[in-house]
Amino acid sequence: MSLIVQKFGGTSVMDAERLRNVARIITRTYDRGHNVVAVVSAQGHTTDELIAKAAELNPKASKREMDMLLSAGEQMSAALLAMTIEALGYPVKSFTGWQAGFLTNSRHTNAKIKRINKDRVENALNKRTIVVVAGFQGINRFDDITTLGRGGSDTTAVALAAVLHADRCQIYTDVDGVYTADPRIVPTAVKLSEISYDEMLELASLGAQVLHNRSVEMAKRYNVYLEVLTSLEEKPGTIIKEVTDVEKMIIRGVAKDTNVARISLMELADVPGIAFKVFSLLASKSINVDIILQSIGRGDTKDISFTVSAADKDSALELLRENQARLGFSDINCDDNIAKVSIVGAGMATNPGIASRMFEALAGANVNIQMISTSEIKISVLIEKSAAERAVHAIHDAFYDLG
Ligand code: ADP
Ligand code: ASP
Ligand code: MG
Q: Is residue 134 part of a domain?
């Protein structure tokens, strides 16, 4: 029997009316003869509200307790949705992450899925029961609850689709597909009928929150047929797949990320091995570094600047300060009043002039570039945070107003 995994984000399950709407989407799919696994996020802004509640009581709450708290949001949605489906007269069972068999590593608040014991879900499906799974969570080897990082319910859905060999994984959200830029910032953004895994992975990693980046990574690895669509209207969304042959768009999208911080280490010794020392130290604490800029040596010293996610800023600074004597820098400074704006497109590598067109657009909008990084399919610039939306508009216009 065919199986469809359907994931519903916070807006889609926000209140009773939306839950009924979601229950109808699920039961309609079921009535068409498919088995259905539904994955849910916490309702509306529940996760943000829980974080605010925690901060009021203990701004330095342990990540273990944060996971204990945040996982409750998804658990509530799962039970509420199951009850709504019950009320329509269908067989249904809801499961928390651990009941659904999600085993993760122990990186609380940003855990990775290691294994899924799918027996319980599969048994329910074999009985033609609709399964509802609380997204974004699992347990580690000590049976402690973990969560998968903000936006992680998408990854729960794709992981289930992969292990259950689902025919498709549908991500229902509050926009009707993936656009060339966040349609809430750029109203003229164009909806893409298809996008490749690689391009979507870059867009998601560079701040387009429409899909959790790890969900795209997993979809690519297990060849999951992934679709982004709206729960509010019945119409086709965007398909994410291996290769796409949509009209030759050089730039597939513009993304912005305001959750970044730049750290600069001043006057490091200009000798072999120093970059290795700095970045292996950060890696040992699982701190991801993104754009790196090293100055040309002056005398015997050089400066190194790099970006980390805003969430890692404090621990990175603390770690570097603790190791100041060993690394030998004279000063450290940090700026989190910045944003990273990027363009993504597989056609970029073979089309010269893309970078200059992007920089021209930024110059025209009077946006100063602090750092630049490029790869085969993306160009990112670091700019002042307050200029981020202006930059996205200007860049989008430069690439899409040409007709
Ligand atoms: P959900 O709660 O359903 O998981 P999210 O808020 O995580 O929804 O993701 C959907 C949001 O992603 C949209 O409301 C939109 O503002 C934002 N977004 C950012 N970039 C894009 C893009 N390129 N295409 C579509 N949506 C985008
Ligand atoms: N509720 C979590 C969040 O807001 C996970 C998710 O929605 O995917 O990040
Ligand atoms: Mg999301």
A: yes
Query: Which CATH number do you get for residue 73?
Result: 3.40.1160.10
Q: Which atom of ligand 2 is nearest to the CA of 74?
A: 1
Name the average pLDDT for the chain: 95
Closest CA to 260 of 287, 241, 278: 287
Q: Does residue 124 sit within a domain?
A: yes
Using the predicted structure, report yes or no on whether residue 126 has a pLDDT greater than 90: yes
Residue 245: band (very low, low, confident or very high) from pLDDT cuts 50, 70, 90: low
Q: Using alpha carbons, list the distances in angstroms from residue 177 to 5, 110, 274, 306.
A: 17, 26, 45, 33
- pTM higher than 0.85 for the full model? yes
Please report whether residue 103 resides in a domain.
Answer: yes
pLDDT at 29: 98
User: Any bridge partners for residue 343, and if so which?
Assistant: 254, 379
Cα(9) to ligand 3 centroid in Å equals 6
Q: Is residue 198 part of a domain?
A: no
Nearest CA residue ID for atom 10, ligand 1:
210
Residue whose CA is closest, atom 22 of ligand 1? 182
For the CA of 9, the nearest atom of ligand 2: 7
Nearest ligand by distance to the CA of 18: 1
The C-alpha torsion from 392 through 398 and 399 to 400, rounded to 10°, is: 90
Residue nearest to atom 8 of ligand 2 (CA): 151
* pLDDT number for residue 40: 98
- Does the CB atom of residue 10 touch ligand 1 within 6 A? yes
Domain range holding 152? 3-173
Q: What is the pLDDT of residues 146-170, one digit of tens each?
A: 999 999 999 999 999 999 999 999 9
* Ligand 2 pocket test, candidate residues 11, 41, 110, most atoms within 8 A of CB: 41
Burial tier of 191 (Cβ tally within 10 Å: 0-12, 13-18, 19+): middle
For residue 337, report the phi and psi dihedrals to the nearest 5 degrees: -90, 50
**Does residue 400 register a pLDDT over 90?**
no
User: How many structural domains is the chain composed of?
Assistant: 1
Q: Closest ligand 2 atom to the C-alpha of 212?
A: 8
pLDDT per residue as tens digits for the range 190-228: 999 999 999 999 999 999 999 999 999 999 999 999 999
Paired sense of beta strands 292-294 and 301-309, if any? antiparallel
CB-based contact 254:395 (threshold 8 Å) = yes
Q: What is the mean pLDDT of residues 347-374?
A: 92
Q: Closest ligand to 172 CA? A: 1
